[in-house]
Amino acid sequence: MKTQLPLFICAVAGIFMAVQYFVPAALPAYERVNDYLQIVYAFSIVLGVASVVHRHGGRVQKRRKDWPYSLAALIALLFMLLAGFIGGRGRETLFQALFNAILLPVQATMFALLAFYLASASFRAFRTRSTDATVLLIAAVIVMIGRLDDGRALGIPDIARWILNTPNLAAKRAILIGVGLGMASTALKVVVGIERSYLGSGKE
Amino acid sequence: MTWMRAGLLQGSERRSLLPFLLGLLFFCSLPCVPTAQAEDTQGQAADRVQASLAAASPPSAAPPSPVTDLEIRDKPLDAGKVLLVSFGRSSDDPGGQGAVTRYALLRRGPADTAFAVVKTLTALVKGDRLSYEDTGLKPGAGYSYLVRTLTASGVFSDGPVFGPVAPARQWFFTNKINTLITTILFVILILAYIRAARRGRSLFIRRIAGLDAIDEAVGRCTEMGKPTLYIPGISTISDVATIASLNILGQVAKKIATYQSRILVPNRDPFVYPVTQDVVKFAFAEAGYPQDFREDDVYFVTNDQFAYAAAVCGTMVREKPGANLLLGMFFAESLILAETGSSIGAIQIAGTDAISQLPFFVTACDYTIIGEELYAASAYIGREPTLLGSLKGQDYFKLCVLILIIIGVALMTSGVLLRNQPFDWVSQILKVRAAGG
Amino acid sequence: MGFLEWIVRLQRLDRRIIFSFMFVAVTVPFYLNWPPVEIEVSREVEDAYQIIDRIPPHGDPLLLSFDYDPAAAAELTPMAEAVLHHCFSKGIRVLVISLQYTGQGAGIASEVVPRIAAQHGRKQDVDWAFLGFQPNALIAMLQMGEDFKRTFPTDYYGTPFDEIPLVESVQNYAQIPAVLTLAATAVGESWAIYPGSRYGLTVIAGVTAVYTADIQPFYQSGQIKGVLGGLKGAAEYEKRVNVLGKGMAGMRSQKTVHYMIILFIALGNIAYWLSRGSAK
Amino acid sequence: MAGIADSVLWTFIAGFITLAIFSFLYRDNPLYKLAEHIAVGVSVGFLVVTYYYNVFKPKVWDNVLHNGQFDYLIPLCLGLILFSRFVPKYGWLSRWALAFYIGGSSGLSIPSTLEGRVLGQAEGAVRSFVSLDPAKGGIANLLSSIDASFVVLGTIACLVFFLFSVEHKGGIGRFAYFGRLCIMAGFGASFGYTVMARVSLLIGRIQYMTEDVVDALRSLF
């Protein structure tokens, strides 16, 4: 009951969705199942979010380390919910203002930090320590200059374009085929029930 | 948003009932929250369209000339519920600027007595033909249509009746044959090899050069008496790269145990943490030195991506490990880890299937295991049947693709050389065509 | 040995000094209007421009999908603005959606699209419509191939699908001349793999620079018909549509930082080979 | 409420938060932690509100309550039993919903991935070594032929590199090493582009600080 039924549901849903790819007659049922998948996926994301909220809640309840920050997170969450459900979501609303003034700067700045780390890594870590690294760094420098459309006299933009359209294309195409086969085989193992790690999350 | 993915798989520790009730209550209370936007339901929209048509007064001005060329086709390759209706403009309608403002499409099904409006189309749309896909019909039933041309003042005239035409249901997307054969071949190959691996047949996997690099690094590090730092990636337990990394961790821990040296394993995922502890403890016991296993060398740091990277860099600077092994799934913070490791002079071996992080690992580390090599290394060590079998199945499928490409290229080249026109049979076989026909 | 020994000692330079070099390299060009930047429009950007330019005004809309979150906004929002300027100036209608699972892509779109539309005096639901967002990108892409209304019963603001004049004749991909996906992840190529191969949809991808190299196989095989790559792609499109945008403004700083990083790599390697030489 | 949306106040808050995150460069500090946690709260709130208006209300409530399509109760129940994960005794109930979703999307991805990633790319790789286009001159044909054969040989070499059933010794070993070098050149191209990507993010933030925040300051005095 706890493992056999889920595996059965998984197999039925998987086989139907794979077979419908080739059968036009299954279109109406396929469209309806797509809607269900979308809704259940939405619930699973909200579940992930709920467990994050639950963890912060637990941290505040038990006054564990950094609990004031978790409290701030919960207050921000509550404030955002009120703004969204009462104030509405148009362009001039408080909800949109909170998104633009808090969420957008944090996300953008968090990844902007990487530019600094890239600079320090270029100085302290990127070495031609092996033929692999040498080929990589030479190609990288050529592409960096080529992307700025500089060094036209030396034909660097053309070499950069050649690197992008020839070795890079060959390598990325082989990697795509490899990754594609890997994804398809993992998906197959899930449908057939060999791969069960997603079940492991529920208590046995 | 990795914290969300991690969150997705939590829930196995003991939990009180409160959050569940909260979650349920939260969702049931939503519909009664006063929604800010004024929402009128579908029902009213349809009435408004109906009302404007009914108010069409008897023709005071001259009626516009009706639409004469109406074409009805069954939609190819569908479930037989759709008819494609297209018609040219009325002669009084020079592209929406003239008197004619709207066209109404009327349909009479087998069970209906009179024509009913199905869709109104504005004349403003560009192009000389207007089209509409009429859906929700019964396969095999005959439907006939006519087009009513309307002016701004509501004066209208009906065109001649066309049909009846019956939508037909098809059972196979004819131009998806190549995908079907590929999928069947793939499924058979993978399942056959997994069964063979489970039955213990010896399947050959070549030794990945990366494994020699790991052995050498761990060997040199233990000679210097320094600890080894092993990072099993920062992804969740269900990530293929994490599972592959845990296999390699077991072998590395066993080797370190035999040299009686130390291994540090900082974890970022609360679920991977207990698994790494068991793997290392079991490896030390298997090497015959269970007492050397130090509980606090395998520890949980934090769930936050950047805080984890900063904390591990602190450990690197403090503990000065001789070798850093970064094997598993990494994201943007891999740059920070690799840089600090390189600056303290540790031998670094990295392995990940995160294609976007590999360029940094190659330049900052001494050796890098690329993408699928990580899975092959794990299969080589762990010999776990499903991983071994599916890897072999994929390998042989890749071989088929390789041979097909070689034949295709040979044909194309000989075609161009011999008669200046490539033989492109192979690429016709491989070509991906739209399902809709 | 002073200079060479100085370079080797540089390796232990405090990371924060390097950070300040970086800050200076980025900020100086904002005020000095230096170095001069000359950009050529590349083939893949020209292909994308032609496909959008061929869409008849006031006819079937271009499908514009905001599939990124604020972390990629610095590169992809200038692209969105350049394309919106192009479409609205020519009267091409735009149907906006977002398939970014946290919904933040929709948050960005609901700020950018109305702002640009107002500059061109384009009316909502007539010249442009914003159908909002769906969490699972792959499933939403395939659903739109059959029925837009089922995928988006209401738009982002709650207006029912039937009450939006722009989508009156839009039922599925048959009425969509092309889709421009602005994506920072594999969602870009998924447009080509899922709806591209099943419905023959014309796909153009605006991707972050990180992803430009990885999307080349799809461009060469024709599964993706045009590519806008990173901030440079935005600058190229701005030049092609001659609009002054953030893409061009950022290119000067890109130039100073690129050369600084090349210098860092060179210095680092000189020190590396010196210390290896002296160590032997 | 509406007037505040783009006033000076919000620009200052955004500027303050940008500095708080940049302070992590100096070292991890309370300001950074506070900004990050507030952002987590705002992003969760944003997600829940957006999901309600764009997914749950139109697709579940409206379909069930107004359009009378009661079959939408199935995904609703499946979705709600996902929350049983919080109840230790009934945790296993959530597996039905997970099984339905993961099974369905895996089944959907098998034919699509094989077609889009494997067939599509394999067809893209099948090109003739030699291109004899009379329009272009002799030299151009020679160059494009060399390019074409390099791409085809490179793709085959990289595929051989990722073959694990064949020992990489002798001829195959060298051919696979040529594949590895192509992969390194490809990573070089990605490296070059990644530099531009990361720098664009930084440029975007500094543009915001030096332009928008400074303008807001100037408008105060």
Could you describe the 3D structure shown?
The complex is a heterotetramer of chains A (204), B (437), C (280) and D (221). With 437 residues, chain B is an alpha/beta fold. Helices cover 43% and strands 17% of the residues of chain B. Chain B is built from 13 helices and 14 strands. In chain B, the strands form three sheets. A six-stranded parallel beta sheet of chain B has the order 11-10-9-12-13-14, sandwiched between helices. In chain B, helix 8 packs parallel to helix 9. The N terminus of chain B is likely disordered. Helices cover 56% and strands 11% of the residues of chain C. Chain C contains eleven helices and six strands. Chain C has a six-stranded parallel beta sheet with strand order 3-2-1-4-5-6, with helices on both faces. In chain C, helix 6 packs parallel to helix 8. Chain C starts with a helix and ends with a helix. Chain D contains six helices and no strands. In chain D, helix 5 crosses helix 6. The longest helix of chain D has 51 residues. Chains A and D meet through helix 1, helix 2, helix 3, helix 4 and helix 5 of A and helix 1, helix 2, helix 3, helix 4 and helix 5 of D.
Q: What structural class results from the helix and strand content of chain D?
A: mainly alpha
Distance between the termini of chain D: 24 Å
* N-to-C series of helices and strands of chain C: HHHEHEHEHHEHEHEHH
The largest sheet of chain D is: none
Number of strands of chain D: 0
Specify the structural class of chain C.
Answer: alpha/beta
Helix residue percentage of chain D: over 70%
N-to-C span of chain C: 17 Å
The low-confidence runs of chain D, each spanning 5 or more residues with pLDDT under 50, are 1-5
| Elements of chain D, N to C (H/E) | HHHHHH
Number of strands of chain C: 6
Strand content of chain D: under 5%
| Strand portion of chain C | 5-15%
Shape of chain D: extended
- What is the number of helical segments of chain C per DSSP (H or I, 4+ residues)? 11
Overall pLDDT of chain C = 88
- Oligomeric state of this protein: heterotetramer
Low-confidence stretches of chain C: none
Task: Summarize the amount of helix of chain C as a percent range.
Answer: 55-70%
The general outline of chain C is elongated
